Structures are given as C-alpha cells and as structure tokens.
Amino acid sequence: MSIVPSLFGGRRTNVFDPLSLDIWDPFKDFPISSSPGVSRETSALVNARVDWKETPEAHVFKADLPGIKKEEVKVEVEDGNILQITGQRNVEKEDKNDKWHRVERSSGKFTRRFRLPENAKMDHVKAAMENGVLTITVPKEEVKKPDVKSIEISG
Residue 141, Cβ neighbours under 10 Å: how many? Predict the structure, then answer.
C-alpha cells in the first residue's frame, strides 16, 4: 500500500490527474485560511467528494451532497468541455436560546470543475439527484470503425 494516498486525504485523489482542475491546498486544515478573503465556511465544501468513472457509453460522475436540495445545486458546461458543479448549503437559523455542544457540519459554497475529453457529448448531459447523491451522465461519441474493403489478389 502506498503512502501517497494517505498524504492527500486517504481516498482516490485527482492531484496527478491532468483532466482535473482541482487544486490541492496544503494549508486547508490549518486554523488560518491560505486563501485571502475565503472564510472557513466558504471553503468547507470546496472538496465535495466526486467519483468519475468511464463506461463504454458515457462518463459518469457521482457527487456526495448530503443535506443539499437539487435547487441549491447547479450543473453547467463551460468552454465546450468543462463540466462545473456549484452549489451552496445554507446556514441554519440560530435561536438565541439554543446551546450548541458541537458544530461539525459545514455550510457555504462549493465548486468542482472537470475537463472532459474530446469524445464527450456535452450537449447531451443529464443530471439527477437522489438521496443526497448527484449523478451526472455525459454520453460519449460513438467510435467509428474504419471501413475495411477486401481487395482480391489476382494472379
């Protein structure tokens, strides 16, 4: 087992994936944000977990977005081949009489961007949200097989 995945969060990472536009922030767990002007709440969901698999027919993305309604998520295509997922989890209203013991759930905005390969049909993208999982399907163009014509050999 490699030590590299544990340095980057333990799960599959896109650090070495040229198609991922995510940037690894080595200071994200420090008390002081490394990005000026970005609050802890805003950066908390930036790394929403997304799986990307390629099947013979399509590219399929699955994003874990627990507690977020489909109205709070936007899926867009930019520059012809960049898939962008954005959204926001709103802060719950606080009652002055409430006594909080622990606050671990994050709120704020998140954005994930993926550069898709040339074979993606960006005009046929479909998205569905079920049980806090956003599934985006991007069909692939059919690979044309070259026409092969047999030539009879005389002689």
Answer: 10
